[in-house]
User: Fold these one by one.
Assistant:
Number 1:
Amino acid sequence: MVGLAGCRSDSGFGPDLGAAEADELKTETLATQERVVKVAMDELGGIDRRKGRTVVAVRCSDLADRRYVSLEVRGSFVVENHRVPEVAAAVTRTWRKEGWDVEPFDGFVLVFRMEPLHGIRRNGSASLHDLRDDPSGLATGVGVVVGTGCFAIPDSLVESGWPRGSDP
């Protein structure tokens, strides 16, 4: 596999990836989101109340060719018997132990960064909120998004509706 770190396309929106590299980036982004959620849930005893994860390719800019996309994987979990500040502190501590650069923002959002893959940056965020209607009466909802920077995919993937059509 050829490393693309530092490579840029002529458009400046991101490096060109082949189909195999784009699929690897998608697979790794899905696995990263799963790991981010799992380590936080393991630390806090969270309950996976997801109805599935969502993976989408987002066009980088209205000015960019439609081949230039970024990936986003979204999911969520619930932590019972803990309020937002406790969950935010525990999640921050846990993710830092994993080696991820985590910055609390506004007390309700955590932003984290990870090592790039194929020269594409990877980062994410977790938004935390009280679930006042939860049966336990004391719960925090955590929504997690893991995403990538922009990159170009081949026309064949654009035409296929990538990354749709695959089971996230």
Note: Residues 9 and 15 are 5 Å apart (CA to CA).
Number 2:
Amino acid sequence: MTMTEPLAQPLDVKLMNLTASVLYLGCALCVLAALLWWLLRYPGFAIARIVVQGELVHNDAVTLRANVAPHLAGNFFTVDLRAARAAFEQAPWVRLAQVRRWYPGRLLVQLQEHDALAYWGPESGSALVNRQGEVFEANVGDVEPEGLPRLQGPSGSSAQVLQMHGLLQPVFESLGLRLQGLELTGRGGWRATLDNEAVVELGGGSAPQVLQRTQRFTRTLAQVAAQYGRRVSALESADLRHVGGYALRLRGVSTVGPEAGTPGQVLAGTPSQALAGTPRQTTAAHDTTDKGRN
């Protein structure tokens, strides 16, 4: 062994040095934890203000803050923004919420409310349909009871029914009638209810097919009603599921079929198609095709 080689440390010295290092590290971690604990609970880091922005019609910013604030755990640095967003979106009429930190000590909340375009489901329910075709629950007393149509259909069909309502509404408006209700049945057929309480069976098929069938009906309805001394508003019901024509009932018109004394419907269509009605129906021939009108 040369004089320049360091002496090996005894085992007990190594253990003491290791123990001291562990103690120093533990103390440092404890100090950091205590500092972090103090910082997290320092009043200066508390959420001092919640700023709510957005076009609010059915909500009040003050009420929203008061209702949501108790559900916000932590301070400015530790608050869970996802949980805060979910808390705001649980509020009635709120469709979307965006929450972000706004230094110092503030939360900035951007809200988008549902824009209700129709009721959804039976009259006993509280569901509405927004502009995006989404169904949501809200206090239906917050909307005008006569201002919205009622839509119905299978689960998940709200957007489809809303779109069809948008296509058909102008068609009925051309007659001075309002499409008060629209239902997509379980078999894929469409049933319309007008503001004069008339029910119109529109049949099934694609949206263009249903639209074309309805347009043919509205173009000829006034002429058919006039044959019986009635206006369009006298419409009680109609069935457009007949090939090339339709059957309808007019208020105040009592038709009698070939079998004496048997009430029936007015059938409008091509002569051959109209005569193909049931024996209990009085037939009124009217061509609904483009060829018949020219």
Note: The two ends are 123 Å apart (CA to CA).
Number 3:
Amino acid sequence: MAASTTTMRRIKLGSQGLEVTAQGLGCMGMSAFYGPPKSDPDMIALIHHAVGSGVTFLDTSDVYGPHTNEILLGKALKGGVRQKVELATKFGMNFADGKREIRGDPAYVRAACEASLKRLDIDCIDPLLPTSHRHSRPHRSHYLDIVVLSCEYAQIGELKKLVEEGKIKYIGLSEASASTIRRAHAVHPITAVQLEWSLWSRDVEAEIIPTCRELGIGIVAYSPLGRGFFSVGSKLVENLSKDDFRQYLPRFQPENLAHNTKLFDQVNEIAQRKGCTPSQLALAWVHHQGDDVCPIPGTTKIENFNQNIGALSVKLTPEEMVELESIASVDNVKGFFSVGSKLVENISMDDFRQYLPRFRPENLAHNTKLFDRVNEIAQRKGCTTSQLALAWVHHQGDDNTGALSVKLTPEEMAELESIASADNVKGGRYDGSMSTWENSDTPPLS
């Protein structure tokens, strides 16, 4: 295992003056989503150990708990610790009457920021990150030294005011599309974009990473260990508690896990050659993406934290980078399947799709019948339902790309269209709290 005595170097995150440690600490799992909340004394000790070890970039969100993770950070930052750290938080999800909604209006942005400041027990946050809608996923905003934006572009203008008032230092985005990043950056300079980037989550490399670099925006990589998979492989899934949302992730389901475990085994072989752990190797791969990237692996154990910072001493050759990337290429990771109503059964509590009208009980039974009919055609064609649905899209014109292995006759096209006609699907695509293509390109309001 690589030693964890590496002196923590610092990097410039973005071009607005923020400097952070080359590796941060994601705090979500201390309070939410990864099993029961951990004890405050243990987590405060971990945070203090991290700061004492030189890791001073801490990431939280008002949705973690909700709110309890920020309160935990507030306790940990007392006694002069706040002055030693760069703190980022997120906002964009509001809880009202037991329901979760996406909010980004100016009044909410200001209220969320001030509430985070109070919970964190500080006067100013470094980055505040609102969320957006990349790949139809809700995005959360972050507060701290950086505040991250949410889905409504009007909030950028309000965040700009909060910067001018000295309540936040920098603005960031979480899970934003390239076009959203450009529009937001035109209103106020964006310091950082937070996104999932790891050996097996690399879809951001096509457009989002180049956009950030073109605009001089720093990159904060969350889940750099593949939700913990690159630490212990399939053993992770065996030990997940019943309230750990990862048990519902497609990549950890039985039909995908055996295949993905083979990828882990190959990564582990390289790690053994390098004299490091597989988690250190996976983290080292992220670090080698550039000095504008700060991974924020999370943990609840000091020994795992020490192992993670040891990744900074792992040096990879260009040949080793290529070898790793070929193992976990985009088309070699299994975990994205269309399964009809089983999708809804396995949606985790923080998956926004549970709120979509088409997946609600009053509509799901009807729509499942549509899926069953599509599945019948897929079986006739010798393909999966997802392949059939994609083939229908490909057949709309030659300007669509992809491997067209499924050929549809005009009669089959008509049959598919009659099954899922506009008046035969129950429930809209989104509820009122979500933006759609009709307003997604609206410029941000200053």
Note: The radius of gyration is 22 Å.
